[in-house]
Design a protein that fits this description.
The structure is a homodimer.
Chain A lengths: L41 H8 L3 H8 L7 H14 L5 H8 L4 E6 L5 H16 L3 E6 L5 H13 L4 E5 L17 E5 L8 E5 L1 H14 L6 E4 L5 H16 L8 E2 L4 H13 L5 E4 L2 H13 L9 E6 L12 E4 L2 H18 L6 E4 L2 E3 L12
Parallel strand pairs in A: 1-2, 1-3, 3-4, 4-5, 5-11, 6-7, 6-8, 8-9, 9-10
Antiparallel strand pairs in A: 10-12
Chain A binds a DNA duplex through α2 and α4.
DNA sequence: GTGGCTGATGTTTGCGTAAACATCGTGGCG
DNA sequence: CGCCACGATGTTTACGCAAACATCAGCCAC
C-alpha cells in the first residue's frame, strides 16, 4: 500500500541495483524473460535500509516491536526499490496460499456467474484470491482432471458450483486437508452446502398461483440430470398435493430459452393450462414467446412465473413475475463457510439455505374462469 | 495424474509416516489446522523409494534420464504417500507461478463472462491457472487496490477485461515484469489489445439496414463513459455519412434492458424512425418491449438489430437479428497474446480484432414505405 | 589398457520469507 | 551496585523444490 505511488513503469527500482548479476550464481534473471532485472527481495531492502532482513520482514508484516525510526527507514527503502513480497516464498513459508479455488461446470448460467462474482468479492474482502477452474465438458474424467490440477494448484480450500453428482467420482482424490463447500446441490450429508432454498421458492410460486385462483399449476422443469431441477420439480409436486390438487404432467426443458419455447408450444395447445411455473427465467422467456405466437395472452389467458430474477426479467413481454435468488448472499456465505471450516478444521457438514423472494410483475393474474 | 486413484480420503499417506514430528523442529504441522498430518514432500518419497530427492524431482518433472525401474519405484512411492508437488515451492524455485490474473470490472455483462470463461479454458489448456480479481466499484482507488493486490499475488501476467480509461491511473503501479493484455478498449498505442471488431460489426449492421431500404438508421447507444459504446456510436455515424445519409440524434442507454425500454419509448414516438441499431442485445430487448407497448410492430414498422448475440436473443419477440461476437475467440487470443508476450518478453503493443458475424433472424425487414 | 565418454544417480546450494533463537543495550529494582 | 527483565534488532535455519555440479559405473576406441 505504501508504495502505491512509486515511479511509473520504467523508473522502477531506480536507485539501487538489487543484488544479483555477479554475486548470485544461478539465480540472477529469475522471472523468465525479464532482462535480468530481478525484483527486489527483502535482503535488498535490508541492505539499503541498513537493517537485517528479519527487521524488514517485521515491518512488512506489521509487527509491533519495531522502532518508529527504523520502520520509517525500511518503508523508505521498500518504496525506493519497489519492493513487493514474493507470494511464492510467503506461501512456502507459511504453508498457505490465501487462495480459494472455485470449480464450476459452466459460466453460462446467471446463477453460477453471480455466485462466482460474489465469491470473488467476499474472498477479496477476507484477503483471499480466487482461482477459477472451469470444467468445459462434464464427463467424470474432466471433473477429475480439474481436481487433480486444483490439488497441485495453490489453493487452501475449494468451492464447487456444480451439480454434486458430477463430483462424486472425483471425491476420492480430494486431498484431506482441503475443505470443500458445494453450491447447487442437496448433498448436505456428504458436503457442506450453501444454496438457494429451491423448495421454499417453488412452494411460494405454486401458492402464489393457486392463491390467484388457478386450479392447478403446470411446471416447465429443467433437465433430468440436474438436482436443482429435480428439487424444484419435487417441491412443485408436493406443494400441489398438499393443496389437494392433481399435478399435471411435467414438461421438461434444458434451462435454455429455446427449450422453453418448444415446451411452450406444447403447453399452449392445452386449453386447460392456465398457470405455468418455469424452473428458470430463460425458459420462461421462451415460453412467453410460444404462448404469444399461439395467441395465448399472458397473463389474461395464462399466468407465467419464473425462477431466478435475471436482470432482463423486468423487460420481458410482459415483465415476468419470478422468484428472486440472492446469489450474492449465496456467494458470501460460501466464503464464510469455507473459511470457517478451514480455520477450525471443521469436518462437520452443514447446510445453509438462502431464502428466495417473490418479485411480483405482470405475468401472473387470476385465471380466465375466475373473472 | 498417476495418483488419481489413490486411497480415499482418510487412507492417504497410510504406510509411511512422512518426516516431521520429532525430527523437524518448527515445521511439523504446516497447513494450519491440519492436526499435524503434514503432506508428503519429495524427501519423504525419496526415502520410501530409496533414492535421492533429486531423482524424485526428475520423475515428477518427466525428465528422460531416469531408469525405468527406478521410475516405477518412485511412482509407487508417490502413490503410496499421496504425494503432490508443492506449488509454492515450485513457484519460488522456478520464478513463475503459471497463473494469469484477470481483472474485471463486473461479471454482469455477457461479454465479460464469456470472455473470462474462454480465458480460463484456454489458460488451463496451456497449463496456466486463472486468478480472478473483480473490482466492485470502478473508482480509481478500487482499481488501484486491485492491482496492488495483483502484484503481491501470484500472477505472471494480467488480462484486463475493462474499459481502459478506468485503468489509466492504476497503470503506474504495474510492475515492469508483468505483461498486460487489455480487452474492450481502443488503447492499442499503450496496451496490447484483443477485442471484437466493434467498428466493423457496426458497419455491417448499418449497411444491412440501409440495404433493406431504410433511409437512415437510429442508434440506441451505450453509456457515455464506455469506450466500446463510443466506438460503436462513432462507427455508426461514419457508416451513415459514408452512405450519404444524415445521422439522426443519438439515443443513449446504459446497456440494461430497462434503459433500452425507456429509450425505446422515445423512439417509438418518432414516426420517421424505421430502423434502430442497438448497441447490445439487452437494450434491444427493452426496445422491443417499448415498441410493442406503443403498437409499433417489429419488423413491419420498425427494424431492430442488436449486438452481442446473447443466447436468449433467438427467443425474443420477435427473434432478434444481431451481430454475433465471438467472445470465445477473444478470450483464446488474449491468452495466446499474453503468453507470447511473456515468453518473448515482448514490449511491443499490438491490436487484434476479432470479426463479428451477422445473425439474421426476424427483427429486420424493409421499411413500410418500400412495400 | 587407459582415457574419455555416456547415462544414471547423488550432493550441494539457493530461491525469499519468517519462526525460533541469540544478542545487546538500557533501565528498573532489590 | 549488580542482576535481570525487556525492548529492539540480528543470526540461523528450514519451508520444498530443482538447477548446477559431482560422482560413479560401464563401455568404446585407440
Amino acid at each position: 500500500m505504501e508504495m502505491a505511488e512509486r515511479a511509473p513503469v520504467s523508473g522502477a527500482g531506480a536507485a539501487v541495483e538489487p543484488a544479483g548479476g555477479a554475486s548470485r550464481p544461478g539465480g540472477a534473471a529469475k522471472r523468465p524473460g525479464t532482462r535480468g532485472r530481478a525484483t527486489a527481495s527483502m535482503a535488498d531492502v535490508a541492505r539499503l535500509a541498513g537493517v537485517s532482513s528479519q527487521t524488514v520482514s517485521r515491518v512488512s508484516n506489521g509487527y509491533a516491536g519495531v522502532n518508529e525510526e527504523t520502520r520509517r527507514q525500511v518503508l523508505a527503502a521498500m518504496k525506493e526499490l519497489g519492493y513487493r513480497p514474493n507470494s511464492a516464498a510467503r506461501a512456502l513459508k507459511r504453508g498457505e496460499f490465501r487462495t480459494i479455488g472455485v470449480i464450476t461446470f459452466t459460466l453460462s448460467t446467471t446463477g453460477n456467474v453471480r455466485t462466482l462474482e460474489a465469491i470473488a468479492t467476499s474472498a477479496a474482502a477476507e484477503g483471499y484470491a480466487v482461482t477459477l477452474l472451469p470444467v468445459a465438458v462434464p464427463t467424470q474424467d474432466e471433473v477429475r482432471g480439474a481436481f487433480s490440477r486444483l490439488e497441485e494448484l495453490a489453493v487452501d480450500a475449494v468451492i464447487v458450483i456444480m451439480e454434486v453428482h458430477l463430483l462424486d467420482a472425483a471425491t476420492v482424490i480430494l486431498p484431506p486437508h482441503v475443505q470443500v463447500v458445494v453450491v447447487d446441490s442437496d448433498a448436505g450429508d456428504r458436503y457442506t452446502v450453501v444454496d438457494t432454498d429451491q423448495a421454499g421458492g417453488t412452494r411460494t410460486a405454486v401458492q402464489h398461483l393457486l392463491g390467484l385462483g388457478h386450479r392447478t399449476v403446470w411446471h416447465l422443469g429443467g433437465p433430468e440430470d440436474s438436482f436443482a431441477a429435480q428439487r424444484r420439480a419435487d417441491a412443485w409436486r408436493e406443494a400441489l398435493v398438499e393443496a389437494g390438487r392433481t399435478p399435471p404432467p411435467l414438461v421438461r426443458g434444458d434451462w435454455s430459452a429455446e427449450s422453453g419455447y418448444h415446451a411452450g408450444l406444447e403447453l399452449a395447445a392445452r386449453e386447460d393450462c392456465t398457470a405455468v411455473f418455469a424452473a428458470n427465467d430463460q425458459m420462461a422467456l421462451g415460453l412467453l414467446r410460444a404462448l404469444h405466437e399461439r395467441g395465448r395472452r399472458v397473463p389474461e389467458d395464462v399466468s407465467v412465473i419464473g425462477f431466478d430474477d435475471i436482470p432482463e426479467a423486468g423487460s420481458f413481454l410482459p415483465p415476468l413475475t419470478t422468484l428472486h435468488q440472492d446469489f450474492a448472499e449465496v456467494g458470501r456465505l460460501c466464503v464464510q463457510a469455507v473459511l470457517r471450516k478451514m480455520r477450525r478444521n471443521d469436518p462437520e457438514h452443514g447446510t445453509t439455505l438462502v431464502p428466495t423472494r417473490l418479485v411480483h410483475r405482470e405475468s401472473t393474474a387470476p385465471p380466465p374462469e375466475a373473472r
